[in-house]
Design brief:
Elements (H helix, E strand, L loop, with lengths): L7 H13 L4 E4 L4 H9 L5 E3 L1 H7 L10 H14 L4 E4 L7 H13 L4 E5 L18 H14 L6 E6 L2 H4 L1 H13 L4 E4 L5 H11 L4 E3 L11 H6 L4 E4 L2 H20 L12 H7 L24
Helix pairs in contact: 2-4, 4-5, 5-6, 8-9
Length: 303
């Protein structure tokens, strides 16, 4: 009820322990706090907050238009309602190394368990589009060093993302991964890998947990959990999947409403009132005020 009973510190410590145990953790992307609760209810290992999803939610393309305050606000809302660790896309750190340092502290205060900062130039773009550009080695390293130096809770996971694979090839990605780990990165997010062998190579080169981005319609195949685990991947994210599923269903529903003048044909596809109230833990609020949940769902058609 209300917020998670698990503290941010405990979520961070648990996240670290599970990564150290060598498990593959699956983190679907939440597009709002309610979807984060659903991710937890379905038994996943953590929640991911995608910069692309926050941009889309604001009606903007993923080209670096969102601000730190917008990302921190949504990340905090999501982190507070789930007992799972929340990993957040912090783009390029929202500016220069000093901005990256501030980003870490603001997101730490928001209660997240980890974040990743990438080596694209500003303004950035989606990692699975052509035409990306990355900063030079020194700038990339400075961003991560600044981020690590700003961390107050040593359990906060600071991950470095590199987009250099699509521009300069795998050998450059391996070199960049090593450099970012030397700068203090706890984990590496190599974007737009071509196959499982490339993930294995990054894991061997970096020597830290590696994240695989299983985004649909991208440059990487949608590997299974077992395939990723066999390649030594530690975290798999599905950043935009729930938003795409929700928007796809919304599009089809609106088409039905437009064509038939009623949503009756698709009611069976909807989350019921009872399912929504259960996910919200509505009845538990009665402990505080028996005037809130003083009704029955019996008699509600398709409840």
């Amino acid at each position: 009820m209300l917020h998670s009973p698990v503290s941010a510190a405990d979520k961070r410590a648990a996240f670290r322990r599970r990564l150290a145990a060598g498990e593959l953790l699956q983190l679907p992307g939440a597009f709002n706090p309610l979807s984060a609760r659903l991710i937890e209810r379905k038994g996943f290992d953590g929640v991911y907050v995608s910069g692309a999803v926050i941009s889309a939610d604001l009606g903007l393309p993923d080209i670096g238009l969102t601000t730190l305050s917008e990302v921190a606000g949504r990340a905090g809302q999501i982190a507070r309602v789930t007992s799972l660790p929340t990993l957040v896309d912090a783009d390029t750190g929202f500016g220069e190394p000093m901005n990256a340092a501030r980003t870490v502290q603001v997101l730490e205060d928001a209660g997240v368990a980890g974040l990743h900062i990438e080596d694209q130039v500003n303004p950035k773009r989606c990692g699975h589009l052509d035409g990306k550009q990355v900063v030079d080695r020194d700038t990339a390293v400075q961003r991560i060093r600044a981020a690590v130096s700003a961390r107050r809770d040593p359990e906060l996971l600071i991950m470095a993302r590199t987009d250099i694979r699509a521009i300069e090839g795998l050998p450059a990605a391996l070199d960049r991964a090593r450099e970012l780990v030397d700068a203090g990165a706890d984990a590496i997010f190599p974007e737009a890998m071509h196959d499982l062998g490339e993930y294995e190579a990054v894991r061997e080169a970096a020597g830290v947990p590696v994240l695989a981005n299983m985004t649909e319609f991208g440059k990487s195949d949608l590997f299974t959990r077992d395939q990723l685990a066999s390649a030594g991947v530690s975290i798999a994210i599905y950043p935009v999947s729930l938003l795409r599923l929700a928007m796809g269903a919304a599009m089809r529903g609106l088409d039905v409403l437009r064509a038939e003048g009623t949503l009756a044909p698709v009611v069976s596809e909807m989350q019921t009132r009872a399912e929504l109230y259960d996910l919200l833990d509505y009845a538990e609020y009665n402990r505080f005020d028996d005037g809130i949940f003083d009704f029955s769902l019996e008699g509600h058609r398709h409840s």
